[in-house]
Amino acid sequence: MKKLTPPNDDAIVVFEVCIARVRDADLKRRLQSCSEEIGEAAEEFNQKAALAELHTIEAKDNVANAVSVDEMKKVYTGRMAKKLAPGRIYYDRIMALPEHGRCPLCSQRVVSTLDHHLPKAHFPSLAVSPLNLIPSCQDCNKTKSEEIPRNSEQETLHPYYDDVESFSWVKAKLEESIPVVVEFYVDPPQNCDGVLMERLKHHFRTFKLSALYSSHAAEELASIEYIARKIFEDGGSNELKGFLKDAAESRKQINVNSWQTALYTCLYESEWFCQNRFM
């Protein structure tokens, strides 16, 4: 997962901009009565997300006993996410947060939507709260669906609050076969906090990252087949190991927990791959 700079737009301001053009007088009055609860919900989210305590936030089926879940969903879809909507400026700002437009949840696919970290179907007060909205790819958004965490260990990583880029936790191991099969897994250092360790594993499972990374690794292995074989035939196993190690170090400089870093580290550390794979 990639850390993102959190959006700094106030939840109440975003909400009030979104509902500014509502023409139905009764609906607008009811929506306006929700502003205080929208602000309180955003503040509670901010405090608890930093402590991995989002599971303690109570799910609701309305906002301020005045607006239904479906009405709040429409505020998001029709008045924030929709092109030319009054709140679209905030949607676009959040979408632009990831570097290179990559989904921070899988670090692989292109951002194409916003994911509600706590689903709007159960937490309507957070439907347009910027801190609850994470730029993501469609696959991650659909895979996560409307999951509600029951404890800290079941909270997926949040790019605005969790920084897991300072240590290595995505690893890979290979099956000594042809074609080579690579499996990805979570293996944080022993001094990693216990709750964080479980959250890393939960995040990996929730977004099905092992299967995603293994698929990309298979394609990568096929693409380097020619050059790896040539290096081995021209310079032997030590030359091949050096090539793979340099590839790992190069990718590590960009993302210590990318599947590419894990893949090339796994390859250069494998005596079988460096000595026997191309014999």
Could you explain the architecture of this structure?
This protein has helices at residues 11-18, 25-32, 35-49, 69-81, 88-95, 138-144, 194-206, 209-254, 259-269, 271-275, and strands at residues 62-63, 67-68, 113-116, 133-136, 170-175, 181-186. It has 279 residues and is mainly α. It folds into 2 domains: 11-154, no CATH class; 170-275, no CATH class. Strand 5 (170-175) and strand 6 (181-186) form a beta hairpin.
Overview features:
nuclease, 48% helix, HNH, mainly alpha
Secondary-structure blueprint:
Elements: H1 11-18, H2 25-32, H3 35-49, E1 62-63, E2 67-68, H4 69-81, H5 88-95, E3 113-116, E4 133-136, H6 138-144, E5 170-175, E6 181-186, H7 194-206, H8 209-254, H9 259-269, H10 271-275
Antiparallel strand pairs: 1-2, 3-4, 5-6
Helical content class = 40-55%
Total number of helical segments? Answer: 10
- State the end-to-end distance: 37 Å
Note the run of SSEs as H and E. Answer: HHHEEHHEEHEEHHHH
Query: What form results from the Cα inertia axes?
Result: elongated
The whole-number mean of residue pLDDT values reads 96
Strand order of the largest sheet: 1-2
Given helix and strand content, the structural type is: mainly alpha
Number of extended strands: 6
For the largest beta-sheet, the strand count, sense and barrel status come to:
2 strands, antiparallel
Keywords: Endonuclease, Hydrolase, Nuclease
Domain HNH: 103-146
Protein name: HNH endonuclease signature motif containing protein
Pfam families: HNH
